[in-house]
Amino acid sequence: MKIGIIFAMKEELDALLKVLTLVKEYKIFDLTFYECELNNKQIVLVESGIGKVNSARTTQILIDNMKVDYIFNIGVAGGIDEKVSVCDIVIGKKLVQHDFDITPFDHEKGYIPNVGVYLNSDEYLINLAKDIKTDSNVYVGTIASGDIFVNDSKMSNKINTKFNALCCEMEGASIAQVCYLSHIPFLVIRSISDSVNGNNELTYNDFLLLSSKMVAKFMIDLLNRI
User: Fold this and answer.
1) Between the N and C ends of the chain, which has fewer C-beta atoms within 10 Å?
2) Catalytic one of 12, 47, 81, 88
3) In this structure, what CATH number is given to the domain that contains residue 100?
4) Cα gap 178→158, rounded to integer Å
5) Per-residue pLDDT tens over the stretch 130-167
6) What is the mean pLDDT of the chain?
């Protein structure tokens, strides 16, 4: 079995790399791939960079060259629902591109031809993730993605209301779209870096280090269940 894990940032990748056995490291184009092992499973880690184009490109390169059975996207996100707080974990049952807009052609916001509005994560992977015990609150719901760093409360509320999304980031739905079109089971997992309910007690740099450790532990537990 071979599993691909895509990160937007190197700090998150490094935290997981520390607890895996590295077998080899190499580049394809300008992307560095880390092939690792865990309990006879082959794990491939890669940093895509920020944004939908970077993450979609990386996903297709990963699929074409690594022949992975599953793909995960792990990282941080901004909470846009009142119930989520900093350090909570969101499992993406559905992904949506909140900035995809062809409404002049009589389609609803977020609708992508031949795809639809929402992309559904793999139920098997969702159920495995839901059973993991963690000190954080874990929510299962919709994650919204777009090439916009959402730090405006009006925009956050609009995305939350329109798509019933729990959090917002910049990669997950594009990774989901490539996986869907390539028939690869996927799951997006995000930890909350800031929230609309005002519980922002950590600076971004402090949270990034803590989040990376949290994601690594959660991901190891999940990998052990597959």
Assistant:
1) N
2) 12
3) 3.40.50.1580
4) 26
5) 999 888 899 999 999 999 888 777 888 899 999 999 99
6) 91
- Other CB atoms closer than 10 Å to residue 209's CB: what's the count? 12
Catalytic residue list contains 194: yes
Q: What is the number of structural domains in the chain? A: 1
| pLDDT over 50 (residue 199) | no
Domain span at 100: 2-225
CA nearest neighbour of 165 among 138, 141, 187: 141
CB 66 within 8 A of CB 26: no
Polymer length in residues for the chain: 226
Question: What phi-psi label fits residue 125: left (phi over 0), alpha (psi between -120 and 50 degrees) or beta?
Answer: alpha
Dist. CA 195–CA 151, nearest whole Å:
10
Q: Which of 47, 88, 169, 194 is catalytic?
A: 194
CB 167 within 8 A of CB 77: yes
Smallest Cα–Cα separation from 212: which of 186, 190, 188, 187? 190
